[in-house]
Amino acid sequence: MQDSLGRRSASSPYGSYRRPPSRGRYSTGRYSTGTGRRSHRSASTPPRQKTPCCTRSRARCALIVVLLLVALGLAGVLVWNFTYQPLVVDFDGLVHYDGASQSFILRNLSKYEVLRGTLGADLGPEPYTCSAGDACFQWPDRASLVLRHRVLEEENVHCTNVTWQALSAEEDGWRPVDCFTVDSAHWYGGPEMYQQRWPINNGSGFLQPYITNDFRLRNFPPDTPAENFTAYGNVAERFFFSSKGVAIVVDDVTPLHVSINQSGDGKLCFMANYTSDYPGYPSPGGRRPVLQYTVCSGRNALDIHEHMYSRFYGRLNAVPDTRMLEFPVWSTYARYGPNISENTVGEFAFQIFDYNLTGSNMFIDDSWEGKYGDLTFNRSAFEFPDPSNLIRYLHQKGLEVSMWVTPFINTDSAAFRESVENGYLVRTDPNSPSLDTPVPALVRWWRGVAGLLDVTNPDARRWYLSRLHFLRENLTVDSFNFDAGEARYFPDIPYYTHEPLLNPSVYRYSGTPQQYNLILDTTTTILLIHSSKWVEMVSSLGVQTAVRTGYRTQSFSVYLRMMEKRSSWGGDNGLRTVIPTMLLFGVLGYPFVLPAPIGGSEFPDKELYIRWMELVAFFPSMHFSVSPWQFDFDTVEIAQKFVSIHEEEVTPLVLQISRSVVMGPTAARYAPIIRPLWWHYPNDVMAQTIDDEFLIGDVMLVAPVMEQGARARTVYFPGDGEWRDERDGATYVGGETRNIPVALDEVAYFTRV
Question: Rounded distance, CA 329 to CA 660, Å?
């Protein structure tokens, strides 16, 4: 603003500059007439004063003024650029972020909006901009946000790396929270859940620490319900993707909390938070939380899955034992529980073959040990007086033997004292040299109070494995079924491990946190793959090894065992959740899945048992515990029929896929064995939400009956080709929906013509 004289007013945002008033041509000075020096002028003429330098040299004075104005102008520009520039970032119309409102919009390369959300919450006044990344904002004493963007035109993908850093002390309470609206698309990936849904935003998950958990946990802690319906489960990958071709992978350095459509809010939210709540992320010495993730946009769900998986996850290093693919696995778990003995296991094996069924492996479950953690048979007269004789008998029947083991070492076992004295357990002290013996951090589990094996300790791993090798060498045990291992079972007090853990879920891995480097050229973009210490350790025991937890363990040739299911028809961890769980494991990179025992973990009704068995016959592996002959001979005949279908029709297809270009360490890309209907038809809107049908490879469509009392079901046929019913030869056109009769002893399954 200028006044009437053309002077800049003091209200300018760049500070005030006002030209000094003119001093006049003459002024009183030290050269007055009273000095005794004669003036050259008359008495009426004012005495001449010495001319100031700017008056003597107008050019020099003008130059000074100009330089001063230029300096002030440059200062104003700098102030504007670094403090007052617009708080809106737009990367080529693909990514839009407003630092003032925290609104975020993502578009694909065709400039269609595919994701909308809010980055940050409760940040206070508008931020300053900063110079990191492609865009940077800073809220003083609260947080900084850095965005890095990259377009990968050859893959029709563009990605943005988002990094929040909290700047305030933990007790101040601010945490990075980003939320995205997900009700305009269908979302996949994420955690195993008690009420598993497909897509996942058809279900709900409350904001909680995103760690591997145990939603079947009973009476632990004592004030929890028998089953935690809202907890995330044994598999919890930080990978989410949508039908619109959007994918998000959250970095391992983030102490991540996640909510999924919480109370039907239609949002997927990520929060970084260290917390003392159990279970959670214990604060590592005052570190302030970081929320870091990469969000990418591609053409569709299939393309973005392939892009993200190839950069963030490892290739399977070998196919696990194929006998467990060909023939059923039998377990003592649901049928006998802890009430097992040499006689019951031997009789169980005899009955399998007496009813003309087959088997690959006998899982001897809970209570074979004398004391949990000793890894020795209970040799009392009523339990296992001669385990060598039992194992020899099972081998004669053609069954290999797998023993149930855990990382827990109970306090009443002989192994507990040895492990404490040698520092093999997770402990309560930071390995203080003043202590002669480390103090173990005890945990409660469903079979008592125990120490937890410290798998970050090489000596502890060697000790543990040596005892398992003893069982293999001296009793000819073939393999092991590893239970627990979730981060949920870390102590609920401050604890220490041989190698520090930033994330309790990394009980299973070591290495450098993965980063998707958007700065490097795509040919040199690298992913630092984590190796799971827990799964890496147990996978060394052979390709028949089974584990029940997964976190960045896709590269190991083990079977991932599905968490036990309830003996019910519904979506409360019953039959209805089996296909969604299998589809989830597949897209997360776990193709070799040992399903939960047929019929669930209790004794089911006959119809439920039959429909469950018919479904599992089309999975890579079949898993029996409750036996068909416990019902009637009709059930046995149906079991014989579907075991035969599994061995003669499903297994050859599974083995073919296992040896194809989508499996193994040299695979050009990854594809699961059991696939959602949209996998080969990603733009088929109907296929994107179907949760009770699946594909085996790209050849077979399976539509089992999932409703009690049903003798027909609706089948949707994806794609634009034809599908042949393998029961009667009838053909159906892709894209249509038909009502198909299905008797109690049938499954509707089709092959692509």
Answer: 25
Q: Are 446 and 410 in contact (CB under 8 A)?
A: no
Conformation bin of residue 484: beta by default, left when phi > 0, alpha when psi is -120 to 50: left
Question: DSSP per residue over 390-424, as a string?
Answer: HHHHHHHTT-EEEEEE-SEEETTSHHHHHHHHTT-
Residue 31 scores a pLDDT above 60: no
Taking 50 as the threshold, does the pLDDT of residue 222 lie above it?
Answer: no
Contact 511, 442 (CB under 8 A): no
Please state the pTM of the whole predicted model: 0.85
487 or 268, which is more confident: 268
For the record, the structure tokens of 284 come out as 């590592």
DSSP reduced 3-state for 81? helix
What is residue 527's predicted lDDT score, i.e. its pLDDT? Answer: 23
145-174, pLDDT tens digit by residue? 999 999 998 889 999 999 999 987 665 668
Q: What is the pLDDT of residues 4-16, one digit of tens each?
A: 334 333 333 323 3
Can you say whether residue 440 is alpha, beta or left, with left for phi > 0 and alpha for psi between -120 and 50 degrees? beta
**CB distance 126 to 132 below 8 Å:** no
Higher pLDDT, 435 or 312: 312
HEC letters along 481-550: EECCCCHHHCCCCCCECCCCCCCHHHHHCECCCCCCCCCCCCCCCCCCCCECHHHHHHHCCCCCCEECCE
Would you state the pLDDT for residue 75? 64
At 28, the amino acid letter reads: T
User: Which residues, 6+ apart, have CB-to-CB distance to 110 below 8 Å?
Assistant: none
744, amino acid identity: L
- In this structure, are residues 704 and 615 in contact, taking their beta carbons and an 8 Å threshold? yes
What is the band of 542 on the pLDDT scale with cuts at 50, 70, 90?
Answer: confident
Tell me how far apart the alpha carbons of residues 264 and 251 are, in angstroms, rounded to a whole number: 26
Rounded Cα distance, 455 and 442, in Å = 15
Q: What is the rounded CA–CA span in Å between residue 595 and residue 704?
A: 16
Alpha carbon distance 549, 540 (integer Å): 16
pLDDT-wise least confident of 47-51, 103-107, 284-288, 669-673: 47-51
Catalogue the active-site residues.
483, 486, 572
Residue 460 and residue 454 in contact, taking contact as beta carbons nearer than 8 Å: yes
In Å, what is the CA distance from 506 to each residue of 291, 464, 676, 703? 17, 19, 29, 37
